[in-house]
Amino acid sequence: MGGARGREAQHSMIFNYITFENYRPYYGKQKLELYKKKDEFTAYNQNITLVGGLNGAGKTSLINAFFICFYGRRKFSKDEYEVIKNEAINSRYYREGGRESKIQLSFTDPTGTYVIEVTFIQDKKNEIAETRKIFVTSNDELREVTTAEEEFNEFIDQRIPIDVAPFFIFDAEKIRDLVGEHDTKETIKAIQKIVSLELYNQLYEDLFKIRNQDEAALAKTVKDEDLQKLSDELQKCATELELLKSEEKPEEKKIEFLNEDKIYLNQKRRLKLANSSVTKGQINRRIGELENELKLIFTTLERFGRNSLPNLIAAPVIRELQKRIKKEQNYLDSMKKNATKFAPYDHFINQILNVEVNPPLNKEQKEQLKEKGKNVWAKVNQVHEVKVEPINVLHLNDLSQNEVLKILNSSLSSNVDVKGLVSKRIQIQGELQKLLEQLNDAPDVIDTREEDEKLARISEELGALYAARKTRSESIRKLQDRHHQLLNEITRKRQAKSELGPVEQKMELMTRLIGATKEFIDQVTILKAKQLKTEIETILLKLFRKKDLHRVEFDPNEFALKIYDEFDRQVDLTSRSEGEKQLIALSMIWALTKVSGANFPFVIDTPLARLDSIHRANLVNRYFTNLSDQVIILTTDTEITKDFAEEIEPFVQKSYLLQYDDMEKSTKVSEGYFTFE
Known about the structure:
By secondary structure, this protein is α/β, with parallel strands linked by helices.
């Protein structure tokens, strides 16, 4: 799964589906089909999968699931991943005794179709263990591929490298930070990796290192004074380079730790703001809501006591009376049916018994004859008598038909859930009591000064570190240029010698190769920068309605974006609105995709939240539909209006709605999208 196959796979990838089994809010097995083959021609490029959900429905869990499947712990801070693991099992499933959850992500690239499966299991020590498997699909069957962790990471990084992933799977509101940090070393490295410059830089570094090793070995044998002087300077230059580069690692580590602290403090600050419901204003609003709800409950209970309670008290007696009346009705109906069936017989036997016979029949004989004859007549005429148990008719003889109907139709039930209302009343009264106790102690505003001060210190420290890193990078570049010049001078002097040994020949060849590689990198860098400049400029003009973004430059040395207004003044990107910074960042991402020639799937969360209607329309019509063969968009109900939903519908190949049930504490995935009135 490595080598050439992995590099080939960078050019194209499609997500097939993602499934959850009792993972976080997703109870049971939930599946999102992310790609379907076109079975008929359409004039539209149906490359969009639309996933809607209110806040808390599981969109963050969904987007993080891609990172978890691909990178696991590598993509998150230690604390973040511990939270993810500890909350990985759905709470409802956990209450039912379940101790396992699972994610499956299927994707296809030119090397085949694969399924990554991540399982979280709680062991006997109540710790969450994580297992990761990868399967290859063949003839609709899954075959597990045994890989060590290092092999798995290499397999993934050859497809979407970890430092490139945030350009293709991201929260659109956070990606706008790219505008303020696009000239940082991490961003530059990721951009160079996307446009394939990183491989060339690595080749240059490797050649440079081999050349230095050979130079150090040859320096011991060179006696020529000029060559010795140049060799000494070359070694000094190489030593200074190594020293500067050795300073990078601890400083980069410090930057990494500070950025983790920054992320943690931002999360803590957001959590404090999100979870804080104890300000006086919020408590008073909640108290007002609860008091109105309590008043409605009391009114409902009072109305119930006045209108329905007497009926409920008399209900047992009425039910017994209804049963008795129905029994009497059944008895009389049966007797009436029997009388109707045997009316011909009664007429016949009465005539027979009135005939005079000698000797005459007594009364008892006539009754026996009548009863026996009835059985014979019923058998001959196939008449079946309804057998009924004799009862005393106590009520029907005394009640009118209307009175009988009124008794039988009396409603003994109530549509008021008295038990539920009483329970709700107790719950509300308890909550009111707690809120009243909290009211005096509640702050007027949320205090985030501690986090703000720490964030300010971290930003200041990071600024100093970034400035020092920029200075050091400039020094490294100058030393590398000087090192290159010294190499050329030494080579020219050695060429004057009549004979060159094998080592000298190798060094001459290496010097030429290093020079050619550097020239190639310089030329490719300029070419890529020009391509990026052209693409970003074109895309910005499509997306923006303002004229103050007039001209774009992309610095090939710093690999940094610069934008100029119509008066050719450089625009301060960090001062732009949040929506504009988001559009600029999205433009950079699209341009990088086009220049690299890669066709990665995109997963974008909340891309329209901070945009006005015109910019939204531009993004829908001109961006998402052309960005990639597969664009998965996660939205809330406020981002896409009815008009936008209709506008984007022809480009949507699949849509889903994440619906969270507060009672069940779980999310259900259903096909479709938000409905608009």
